[in-house]
Each structure stands twice: as structure tokens, then as C-alpha cells.
């Protein structure tokens, strides 16, 4: 099971490709899966973790019509990606639009996945947690 941590600032090229941080590339040598993530980011899953997510989604689909629609959306918006020799993956335009990605992309480890964020959206999302930590708050 791959574990991801760390934070990296990258850019998209003119073709909508992102170079994965070298630290993360090994987990995606055979490819990976890009999905819409919570908070307006994109989630990049290693194959084994994506399989676990699909199992969880299949179980969730039986919980009612609203859950089935979320599962449909998740499956329909997922894309398989394979890094090229330079470690670049292509981000489909519909996923770039969902995440509000422009040229600058914040790539960070989120334990069981890699997340791709618009830097401004990321700062707004984590500002309250950073303020709590700065005031002496605990991680747990």
C-alpha cells in the first residue's frame, strides 16, 4: 500500500500535462486513476487504492438514489492516467475545470492518495486549520 506525504508546487504545460513529483512516480509506474476529490481538488489514486475506492463506492450505491447518483458521478468522472517517460500525466479538461486548475498546481500527499489543488483554493481550504495550529492547537 502506497503512502503519500509532502507538498510540491508544479505547473501544467500547454497540453494540460502535469509532471508528477519524483517522490510519487514509483507508485504510478503502471498508471493511476484521477477522480474528483472533496473540496474541489483532484485525487490521484494508485491502482490498489483505486480498487478499494471502487469497492467502497459499490457498497455505497445500494444506500439509495442520492448515493447511486454520487457513485455514477464519481465513476463517470474518473480517468485512468499513465505517466510518460518524463513522469507527466495528462489531466482531462473536465477535471481541470472541476478543480479550477490553471497553470500553477499544488501537488501534495494525502496519505492514501495524491491531491492536486489550485493554490488559492488550497490556501482558503486549509487557512482555518493553520490558524488553529498557530494558536497552539494540536494535530489530534
Automatic annotation (TrEMBL):
Subcellular location: Cytoplasm, Nucleoid
Chief location category: cytoplasm
Residues of the SpoVT-AbrB domain: 7-49, 78-121
InterPro entries with a match to the protein in the record: MraZ, MraZ_C, MraZ_dom, MraZ_N, MraZ_sf, SpoVT-AbrB_dom, SpoVT-AbrB_sf
Keywords, sorted A to Z: Cytoplasm, DNA-binding, Repeat, Transcription, Transcription regulation
PROSITE patterns per the UniProt record, alphabetical: SPOVT_ABRB
Family: Belongs to the MraZ family.
Subunit structure: Forms oligomers.
Protein name (record): Transcriptional regulator MraZ
